[in-house]
């Protein structure tokens, strides 16, 4: 297994993490570090433990063995959840009938900071407008979310996560159901956000071919961590790594930009 070389300060660190559901092992001896400024893609087949890994990082599950640290603190002592933005799997799906505009959905991302039943100030609204513009939806700011395409709705939920100004953005399968052209635009947006703001990102995806060309770190998960290193290292050994995870039936597709 290749381990990530030290970069900025550790944002996420898992040490010897093991997790089981009903006695069945899902993750085994995971050693994983995400450094400040990393854009890390996590790949693996269905049932490989990707969603479980995210739930452990988000504090929704507790490991059977090992430790999880966020921003240098043990998970049990971490309280600064506003530092983490999360876009759940299928977040943009099933919202077509939701009676809200782009502006309203994005402003709702500030509820954790402002509090329930509190008014948003002019400064809050101005900041939300800036974030909406950054994700390329300035002209849609007052549009009903149900009138947007799947790719545009995904951008709305990224803006909703960004409006609280997190230091770490986690995205779970964000391109499911999005057309190929929108996927390319989506990754280009994420890379721009990272380069402009220094945001640390972690993205779970099945689309190894496209994703690995935009991230700078790759983690390959199948109960154990089969690879954890730079995207350049992954590219040099991609076929062998994926065959270890998926078996000889894997068929690699090359994407040209």
Helical stretch count? 9
**Total DSSP E strands:** 10
Question: Strand share of the residues?
Answer: 15-25%
Order of strands, main sheet, comes to: 6-7-8-3-9-10
- Apparent shape: globular
Number of domains: 1
**CATH superfamily (homologous) name:** P-loop containing nucleotide triphosphate hydrolases
Query: Whole-number average pLDDT?
Result: 85
Supply the helix-strand structural class: alpha/beta
CATH classification, class level = Alpha Beta
Oligomerization state of this entry? single chain
Helix-strand topology string: EEEHEEEHHHHEHEHEEHH
Task: State the end-to-end distance.
Answer: 29 Å
Uncertain segments of ≥5 residues (pLDDT<50)?
A: 1-6, 252-257
Fold-level CATH name? Rossmann fold
Describe the protein.
With 257 residues, this protein is of the alpha/beta class. The protein has a single domain (10-246), classed as Rossmann fold, CATH 3.40.50. The chain is built from 9 helices and 10 strands. It has helices at 50-57, 102-107, 111-114, 122-134, 150-162, 180-197, 208-211, 231-236, 238-246; strands at residues 10-21, 24-35, 39-43, 65-70, 73-74, 84-87, 168-172, 200-204, 217-222, 224-230. The strands form 2 sheets. The chain has a 6-stranded mixed β-sheet with strand order 6-7-8-3-9-10, with helices on both faces. β7 (168-172), α6 (180-197) and β8 (200-204) form a beta-alpha-beta unit. α4 (122-134) crosses α5 (150-162).
